[in-house]
Amino acid sequence: MASAYCLYDESFSALKAAELIVQTFVYSALIYFGLSYAGRSSPGPMLALLSFMPVSTGRFWLMSIYIAMYLFSPFLNFGLSKMSQAQHKACIAVMLFMFCAVPGILVYADPYNVVGGRTLLWFATLYVTAVYFKKYDAGEYSGEPVICKGKGRLFFAYICCAAVTLLARVFLPGLFNTIFGKNDYFMSIYG
After folding, report:
1. Which 3 state secondary structure label does DSSP give 115?
2. Distance between CA 166 and CA 156 in Å, rounded?
3. Distance CA 125, CA 162 (A)
């Protein structure tokens, strides 16, 4: 989100995209050679392929997605610059519904392949949201202290959500394995 916040006003540079790809390649190769030399990794053709093509193989998935977002950002920026504030809010709402709510409701299917958050669709959702904050100064800090009413209730809600998540992680696998037999159903819900 921080990168998107900054990229909205930045002009696209093919040189910067190439630099990102080269940097990722160099770090990947150095890690490969360093671990191989130290005896921490057994060099082999598959590992070499993954290490020398880190962006296209997704070896470093975060950089692969970041580079894809950087290449896609001029098009997103153009579309977002043409939207009204209401359209932008609606776009965020639709994206969050499709890529957060739907995978949470249809737990046995991932229709948009977004569970886990390692996809261009999810990063585009974060990008569109961050640009909204940038464009409309949502949440701009004025230097004045912010008084949050109901902080205790928010903290209690956070603790409850954390407890439910922990309990779900501990008890639901056994329950779902008993009901559905051994399968990945729980992990799709948890994801």
Report:
1. coil
2. 15
3. 24
